[in-house]
Amino acid sequence: MDGYAFRLRILHERGLSLVNKEIGGDQMKRVSSADKMLFVRSQHASMINGLQFRYPIFGPVVRLAKRWLASHLFSACLAEEAAELLVAYLFLKPLLFNVPCSRITGFLRFLRLLAEHDWAFSPLVVDINGDLSQNDEKEIDDNFTQSRKAYEENTQNESKAMFLATAYDKASEAWTRCSPNPLELKRLAAYARSSASLLTKLILQNQTDSRGWECLLRTPLSLYDAVILLHGDRLPYPKRLLFTSELDQGIFLGGKGRHVAHGNASTCFHPFLLPSDMKGSSLEQLKTKLMVNFDPLRCFVGDVENGFSNRLKLWYDSLGGDAIGLTWERSKKREREEEETDGKYPVDLLRNIGELGKGFVRDVYLLKAPRLSS
Predict the structure, then answer these.
(1) How far apart are CA 73 and CA 225, in angstroms?
(2) Integer Cα distance of 338 and 333 in angstroms
(3) What's the rounded mean pLDDT across residues 33-57?
(4) I need a surface site. Which of 25, 31, 121, 219 has the fewest CB within 10 A?
(5) Model pTM?
């Protein structure tokens, strides 16, 4: 309608009672997981919306927190709903402090919560409506203990490194079931600790220089094993790009880093309709040009993960960043040697990834070669 595409989903309150309804005493009627998540999302959205009315500054703090997470390439590690719950906890349980009364105060407390909470031994219970009973709290504690016991018995089970419990999700299944894993959470906490220290310094020194504040949302690309830079005008939301990413040339001194590939921007697609497309085009022609739900970043990340997930891990910004960080997944020495003899590690592998994103990928850099494990 008027150049915009909409997707509608019908939600009926009666369906909520049918999600897990007993039939015949011992048989459970189960709807699809997609339908379950639809109802969970509706409950979450309702609670968060109510919290926004209680605390008007809640929304701006959430937006800052989400932007920080995305800017440091944690989009795949922490769901947006999980970030909303973390910020909600700050308003519901300010502990020794008053409820945050500014965006900066709330943002700083969010960073400290990420960095300082004892995630390994303590669940984070977010009781938005204050309706959790003692039995509910006991159930949450039991679920948390069970999840930790399962991890101790099998260290390969990396689920629920962050346990976020709510009235509608007492087992922390909705938003943190698979991520962040322990390594991702450790990295998250380290980045949060560093940003909290910088933000505290900026506040205490009353700095107004924009470059100092920009550092809060600039992630050090040198900390990754490889980096992919994208064409900013081909991103799904080009206007959301805060800074054009560039690598410090000092990385390449002494032969430590290597420029692997360069590609030009494609003229075959745009994530949105251009003004030139609107002129002299009929409604039917415009319909053929309109790309519904087209996100080249998501498509590219999905293709790379499908083809190379056992060799590398992707870190990216889903809100508008033009950089993707890569870290090598460790494999056994024998497997690595076979890969090297095939000529696929690491330069050729990165070139293949660059070819996969032809027209969207600007540059590919190798910063650190993969390590062999015993």
Answers:
(1) 14
(2) 9
(3) 86
(4) 25
(5) 0.86
Instruction: Give the span between the Cα atoms of 287 and 224, in whole angstroms.
Output: 41
3-class secondary-structure state, position 57: coil
Mean pLDDT, the chain, rounded, equals 84
Distance, CA of 240 to CA of 24 (rounded, Å): 53
User: Do the strands 124-125 and 164-165 form a parallel or antiparallel pair, or are they unpaired?
Assistant: parallel
Distance CA 236, CA 319 (A): 9
E strand or H helix at 15: none
Q: What distance in Å separates the CA atoms of residue 145 and residue 133, rounded to the nearest whole number?
A: 18
**Cβ proximity of 283 and 1 under 8 Å:** no
- Supply 350's token pair: 């990165």
Average confidence (pLDDT) over 352-356: 94
- pLDDT higher than 90, residue 362: yes
- CA triplet 329, 123, 57: central angle to 5 degrees? 95
Q: Where are the domains of the chain?
A: 32-197, 220-366
Of the candidate CATH numbers 3.30.70, 2.30.30, 3.30.930, 1.10.10, the domain formed by 220-366 belongs to: 3.30.70
Residues β-bridged to residue 363:
229, 262
Those residues with Cβ within 8 angstroms of residue 328's Cβ, 6 or more apart along the chain or in another chain: 225, 226, 311, 312, 313, 346, 368, 370, 371
> What was the pLDDT predicted at 21?
56
pLDDT at 23: 39
| 3 state DSSP class of 21 | strand
Rounded CA gap, 347 and 366, in Å? 7
pLDDT tens by residue, 75-125: 999 999 999 999 999 999 987 788 999 999 999 999 999 999 999 899 999
Longest dimension (CA), the chain: 72
The DSSP symbol for 344 reads -
Specify the amino acid at residue 103: R
Q: Cα-flanking dihedrals φ and ψ of residue 151, to 5°? A: -70, -40
* DSSP secondary structure of 270-327: -SS--HHHHTT--HHHHHHH--TT--HHHHHHHHHHHHHTTTEEEEE-TTT-SEEEEE
Predicted pLDDT at 238: 85
Report angle CA 210, 191, 40 to the nearest 5 degrees. Answer: 105
